[in-house]
Design a protein that fits this description.
elongated; two-stranded antiparallel ribbon; alpha+beta; about 190 residues
Length: about 190
């Protein structure tokens, strides 16, 4: 969640687009709920892009090969411990255009299908297949509600420090942000 908010603060056009989507689809005077999530595709794109740049486990749990195999031209004997670098895969320029840029639109399903980019295992913040994280669906929903609520109810602003280095795009999340309640949402804030 910190990475997503940090990336949104560093990219005000994405923050505005997300706030507009939430304001349009969530009725006035009501806090975002789980039933709203299917109507918020850009929120899903923001979270997926945040997880691509900052996976929760950059190197997921190791696996052991169950049989002899060949991976990328290397012969792997049975019983070998295999480590996967999700962070590197999700930033590989072979798979991702401008891999260090925060571009939530790359996860827009319609454009990704049209460009043929929905294949393979190039987005794996929770692992994949039968050994993927069983809690990923719940984590995605909880994160969506938390980020959606923070964007719905608060105004966010990047703080520039002359004497402090601000992280570049794709670097670790920065805590150089300020927020205040959105006056238009004071009725929603009273529900929390």
């Amino acid at each position: 969640m910190v990475a997503a908010i940090s990336l949104l603060v560093k990219n005000p056009e994405a923050l505005t687009k997300l706030r507009d989507e939430i304001d349009f689809h969530v009725e006035e005077g009501r806090f975002i709920s789980e039933s709203d999530l299917p109507k918020l595709p850009y929120l899903q794109c923001v979270i997926q892009e945040s997880l691509r740049l900052h996976p929760p486990a950059p190197i997921p749990l190791p696996h052991i090969s169950s049989e002899d195999c060949t991976i990328a031209g290397y012969d792997i004997p049975r019983g070998t411990m295999l480590l996967l670098n999700a962070w590197a895969i999700q930033r590989d320029p072979k798979w991702w255009e401008e891999p260090t840029k925060f571009k939530p639109e790359r996860f827009d399903r319609e454009s990704a299908i049209k460009e043929g980019k929905m294949d393979g295992f190039r987005w794996i913040p929770f692992g994949a297949g039968r050994r993927g994280c069983p809690g990923s669906g719940m984590a995605f929903r909880v994160t969506s509600l938390a980020i959606g609520g923070l964007i719905q109810c608060l105004e966010w602003k990047k703080i520039d420090h002359d004497d402090e280095m601000i992280a570049e795009e794709g670097d670790e999340p920065s805590s150089s942000a300020m927020f205040r309640p959105r006056l238009a949402k004071k009725d929603v804030l009273s529900q929390i």
